[in-house]
Structures are given as C-alpha cells and as structure tokens.
UniProtKB/TrEMBL annotation:
Its EC number is 2.7.7.27. Homotetramer. Gene3D superfamilies: Hexapeptide repeat proteins, Spore Coat Polysaccharide Biosynthesis Protein SpsA, Chain A. Pfam families: Hexapep_GlmU (PF24894), NTP_transferase (PF00483). It catalyses: alpha-D-glucose 1-phosphate + ATP + H(+) = ADP-alpha-D-glucose + diphosphate. This is Glucose-1-phosphate adenylyltransferase. GO terms for molecular function: ATP binding; glucose-1-phosphate adenylyltransferase activity. Transmembrane segments: none annotated. The gene is glgC. The keyword Signal does not apply. GO terms for biological process: glycogen biosynthetic process. Involved in the biosynthesis of ADP-glucose, a building block required for the elongation reactions to produce glycogen. Catalyzes the reaction between ATP and alpha-D-glucose 1-phosphate (G1P) to produce pyrophosphate and ADP-Glc.
Length: 381
C-alpha cells in the first residue's frame, strides 16, 4: 500500500556529552520534565501532524527505549496499516551490522521504506525538545518543488559550532553548508529535521554504495553532495521553542525552564498534546513535614522533605529534613534523610544515602548517574 510520507526518527545516539546519564540508556530515552522521555516530543509531533507511518531507528543501548515506544499505542500509533515500527541494526549480506551514521541508518533500512513506497521521507532527530507541525513543513517542501528541505532555527553565535549551519539566498534556498564548523559563517542552524523527495535520496544512497563512496551522514555527506549537484535545497524557518539537550547544562536548563507555567512550549495545550507512556503508579504523597514550592511533582512521589523550584519524576522518594532545590530528579530515585541536593540532575533509579550533600555551581551542574549510589556505605565500596 503506497504511503505519501514515512517518518524516520533517528534514536540510536549514545549522547556521550551527557556522560553517565547515558551510560546505560540511549539519549532519546533520557527522562525529561517529570512525565516524559526526550523522544516523546518527536513521536507526539508525528502523531499530531497526522504522520502515521513512523519508524524509530535504534542502536545504542536500546532496551529502555524499545520498551518505552512499544507498539506506539501511547501516541495513537498502534495501527493495522502503518503505525510505529522499531528498526534495529542487523547483519546484512555485506557483513555490516551497525549504522555508521544517520544516512547509513536510512540506507540500511531501505527495504522497509521501499515497502511503504512513499513520495517523501521525513528524517527526525529523537533528542530535541520542541513542538512542530511537520505537515506545514511538508506543504512548504511541495510548494518549493524541493529535493530536500531542512528545518532551521537561529542559535546563539557562541553555540553555532555545535550544529550544522548554513547560508541562504533571498528565496531561502540553501547555498552554503558547514557541519559543526570551528569558525561558523552563520548562526542559522539545522534542527536535524529533513524532508527528502524519496526517489532522489534513494538514488544518491544507492549510487554511493555501488560506487564505494561513503555517504554515511546527512550533514557530512548528503547535504554537501546535494549542494555540489545543484539540487533544490530549501530552508524551512521554525519559530518557537526548540532545545537541543545534548549537554548536561542544556538538559538541566531545559528542565528548569519547563517548571514555568507560562513556558513557551505550553505543555498544557490540549490542541497539541505531548504524549508519553503512562507508568500507572500510585498518587503522590506529601507527609506533614513536606514543603513544596514552585515545583513539579509527578505521580508516585513520596516527600517528607523540602522541594523548591525542582522537578520530581514519578516514584521519587525524598526523606525527612532533605532539601531539593533547582534540580531535576529522574524516575525511581531515592533520596535519604538530611540530604541536600542543589543545582543537580539525579539519574533514573539512583540512590543518595542519608547525610549527603550534592551541590552544583554556576559553572558545573552536579550529576548522579543512572542507577548510581552516592554517600553512605556506597562510598566505602
């Protein structure tokens, strides 16, 4: 059955800049905002945009991510025709097992895309926080008669070297592209969102393989090849909240911004919901010694201490006389008594024992990793 559009969410990244937070889980599976994981935003955007054929391409530490996505039912993507599909690396005829880059991941799954026979393929990153109507971008792609359309947003100049950046002419046609340059010529950054006319992209990928030319990455290889061949490449400007949470500092700040009830992302908008898998846990419980101010507390939390300007994900426990301030606590973390946590991220399933201090600074956020134990007898192991 022919499908007009297939969305491919690239969710196999290790997220090495997040350090021990991604030691055991893929970056898109990292919790965010109390109730969510990072990939929920791309999946929800697909569902809200009416894109029902969605493939999640995984690789690094996929267990938590696979379990979270499941059959896509949490996003209304459990369908008889279409829906969510998880694609993992496999041993091919030529012996290749792992994806060498973003474009190579798509090439390795070319049979899946061909079965859908789409006119367009939407390539998405699974590790950004934003709301976006992809259908509007697709309409723009069609209107321009583009071979490739790239979602773009201006970023601070001091951060531009972290991104692929580009220059455009007066018609928004891309005329120059630099992938993570040391000295960027522009601050117009790629959002990691691409819409390709599939027949053209398939030809590029197939030709590169048959001629032993490495076309492994969209930023390093595909975009420059399109530019060299004068393909019609256009920039689609996005206006709204978008955050690359690829570093500890950006993940922390994005969560702190998320606390604001007037946040630009407007998480309470019923017309464009962000969906996630429901943990089906118990209601939150605040004891008589609990004190909570300007914080987001999700289901399953047990609080006997003080929480100020922080996010507590589901099933977090905070003991007596403990103080949590300016921090993001991931699911199932246990914080003992007489503990101080300030300007920190505490990883999923972590445990902080009694009488421990965990205090970050303006220059460095304090971090406890996935399942890590801090304080008490854990320091003597």
């Amino acid at each position: 059955m022919k499908t007009e559009t297939v969305a491919m969410i690239l969710a196999g990244g290790q997220g090495s800049r997040l350090g021990k937070l991604t030691k055991q889980i893929a970056k898109p599976a990292v919790p965010f905002g109390g109730n969510y994981r990072i990939i929920d935003f791309a999946l929800s955007n697909c569902a809200n945009s009416g894109f029902n054929d969605v493939a999640v391409v995984t690789q690094y530490q996929p267990l938590v991510l696979n379990r979270h996505v499941g059959n896509g039912s949490s996003w209304g993507l459990n369908r008889h025709n279409g829906g969510a599909t998880i694609l993992q690396p496999y041993s091919s005829v030529d012996g290749e097992k792992f994806f060498k880059g973003t474009a190579h991941a798509v090439y390795q799954n070319i049979d899946y895309i061909n079965q859908k026979d789409p006119e367009f393929v939407v390539i998405l990153s699974g590790d950004h926080i934003y709301k976006m109507d992809y259908e509007k971008m697709l309409d723009y792609h069609k209107k321009q008669g583009a071979s490739l359309t790239v979602g773009v947003i201006p970023v601070p100049w001091e951060e531009a070297s972290r991104f692929g950046v580009m220059n455009t002419d007066k018609t928004d046609r891309i005329i120059e592209f630099q992938e993570k340059p040391e000295n960027p010529k522009s601050n117009l950054a790629s959002m990691g969102i691409y819409i390709f006319t599939w027949a053209r992209l398939k030809q590029y990928l197939a030709d590169s393989q048959s001629k032993s030319r490495h076309m492994d990455d969209f930023g390093h290889d595909v975009l420059p090849a399109y530019l060299r061949n004068s393909e019609s490449i256009f920039a689609y400007s996005f206006e709204g909240y978008w955050k690359d949470v690829g570093t500890i500092e950006s993940l922390w700040s994005a969560n702190m911004e998320f606390i604001d009830p007037n946040h630009e992302l407007n998480i309470r908008d019923r017309d464009w919901r962000v969906y996630s898998k429901n943990p089906n846990t118990t209601p939150q419980f605040l004891t008589e010694t609990a004190k909570v101010e300007n914080s987001m507390i999700t289901d399953g939390c047990y609080i006997a201490g003080e929480v100020n300007h922080s996010i507590l994900s589901h099933n977090v426990k905070v003991g007596k006389n403990s103080v949590i301030k300016d921090s993001f606590i991931m699911p199932n973390a246990v914080i003992g008594e007489n503990v101080t946590v300030e300007k920190a991220i505490v990883g999923e399933g972590a445990r902080i024992y009694d009488d421990t201090e965990l205090i970050g600074t303006e220059k460095e956020i304090s971090v406890v990793g996935y399942g890590e134990e801090v304080g008490g007898y854990s320091d003597e192991k």
